[in-house]
């Protein structure tokens, strides 16, 4: 039994493994993933860094006096927190700043669907920070809540403050309807020494150190390939494609989310990558993309929901020479794997990157080759 660093462990629904040593956590993840994908456990490499203080994003909910996380087994109740041990120092500072105004906030009741303040989404990448207050747009106290957010914006050390609006029935903390009340809507991070911008309401890895390790590892896998074309699918804001662009004459990064594609274009320019092309595309339509008649290497980095069978089928119709599959949900990848093996691909190597210590989650990077 390991001593948890968080005094709310067991009640808070955020972490579930703090009572295990970090060595046991890593060993457990490797064992489960090896069994899921049918690959020798001892052949899966482990990559990790600090088990605490790593997160640069937390989605908190409002309690009566402080923000916190949902209670384990009682999702409608809030475990109020003074700090979060898995979050980085900057995030914990901003958490305390939000806690200073939390007693004045009309906290949303998730069971009754009443109240105003739903979430405080705090993001603290290395080069900027933001706080987004997610409000119930149907609340009769919306004007008072907006005034409190504006007062917070005048006092906080966060560079960017936004107000987001969702219907009272919605449970999401990423919003499409928002207002910037301080700074801007975009954040900046550095991966493998390269600058990247991304939207405060968009996806980006929450563990910068391990994300850089993972990107560098993928670069190392591709380096001996001497390939002609790299196809970066589910490319987001272009991190993999840009960081591996020195290895290929041509790179195409494809993403379905318009805002991410726009940021990817900016990141291509900022990093001087004249050989990278960004396209907006639902990956299931990969068969419609005109590709040069060249050997193709592919990076797949889908969301937690994975790839739909149609997308896999249409990708495999293109018969890529080599695939690097990056999965944040190894169980989902294991369900998809038979489609690849039926098409003649096999796992050549597998590596675990622990971007989420103290939780059961991890990133899995596999090489899929034919033959």
Q: How would you portray this structure in words?
A:
- The protein has 371 residues and is an alpha/beta fold.
- Helix content is 26%, strand content 28%.
- It is built from eight helices and 17 strands.
- It has an eight-stranded mixed sheet with strand order 1-16-17-15-14-11-12-13, sandwiched between helices.
- The longest helix has 16 residues, at 22-37.
- The model has no long low-confidence stretch (mean pLDDT 95).
Using brief descriptors, characterize the structure shown.
alpha/beta; 371 residues; 7-stranded mixed beta sheet; 26% helix; 8-stranded mixed beta sheet; 28% strand
Q: Helical proportion?
A: 25-40%
- Placed side by side, the strands forming the largest sheet appear as 1-16-17-15-14-11-12-13
Count the helices. How many?
Answer: 8
**Beta content:** 25-35%
Largest sheet, strands/sense/barrel: 8 strands, mixed
Radius of gyration: 21 Å
Q: Which class best fits the helix and strand makeup?
A: alpha/beta
Q: pLDDT below 50 for ≥5 consecutive residues: which ranges?
A: none
What is the averaged pLDDT score? 95
What distance lies between the first and last C-alpha atoms, to the nearest angstrom? 45 Å
Number of strands: 17
> What letter string, H or E per element, gives the SSE order?
HEEEEHEEHEEEEHEHEHEEHEHEE
Shape: globular
Offer a quick outline of the entry.
With 371 residues, the protein is an alpha/beta fold.
């Amino acid at each position: 039994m390991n001593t948890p660093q968080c005094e709310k462990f067991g009640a808070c629904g955020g972490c579930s493994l703090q009572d295990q040593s970090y060595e046991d956590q890593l060993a457990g993840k490797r064992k489960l993933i090896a069994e899921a994908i049918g690959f020798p456990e001892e052949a899966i490499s482990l990559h990790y860094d600090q088990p605490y203080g790593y997160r640069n994003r937390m989605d908190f909910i409002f309690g009566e006096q402080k923000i916190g996380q949902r209670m384990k087994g009682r999702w409608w109740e809030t475990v109020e927190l003074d700090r979060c041990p898995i979050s980085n120092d900057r995030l914990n500072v901003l958490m305390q700043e939000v806690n200073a105004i939390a007693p004045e906030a009309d906290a949303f009741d998730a069971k009754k669907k009443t109240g105003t303040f739903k979430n405080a989404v705090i993001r603290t990448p290395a080069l900027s920070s933001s706080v987004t207050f997610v409000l119930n747009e149907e609340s009769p106290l919306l004007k008072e809540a907006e005034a409190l957010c504006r007062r917070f914006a005048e006092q906080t050390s966060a560079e960017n403050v936004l107000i987001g609006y969702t219907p009272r029935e919605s449970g999401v903390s990423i919003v499409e309807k928002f207002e910037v009340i301080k700074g801007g809507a975009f954040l900046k991070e550095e991966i493998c020494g390269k600058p990247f911008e991304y939207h405060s309401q968009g996806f980006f890895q929450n563990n910068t150190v391990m994300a850089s390790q993972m990107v560098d590892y993928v670069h190392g896998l591709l380096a001996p390939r001497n390939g002609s074309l790299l196809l970066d699918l589910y490319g987001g804001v272009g991190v993999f494609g840009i960081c591996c662009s020195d290895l290929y004459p041509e790179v195409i990064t494809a993403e379905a989310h318009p805002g991410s594609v726009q940021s990817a274009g900016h990141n291509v320019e900022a990093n001087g990558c004249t050989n990278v092309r960004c396209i907006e595309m639902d990956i299931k339509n990969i068969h419609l993309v005109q590709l040069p008649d060249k050997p193709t290497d592919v990076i797949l980095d889908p969301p937690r929901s994975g790839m739909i069978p149609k997308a896999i089928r249409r990708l495999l119709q293109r018969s890529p020479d080599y695939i690097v599959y990056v999965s944040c949900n190894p169980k989902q990848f294991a369900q998809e794997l038979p489609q690849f093996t039926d098409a003649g691909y096999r796992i050549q190597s597998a590596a675990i990157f622990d971007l989420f210590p103290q939780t059961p989650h991890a990133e899995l990077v596999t090489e899929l080759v034919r033959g």
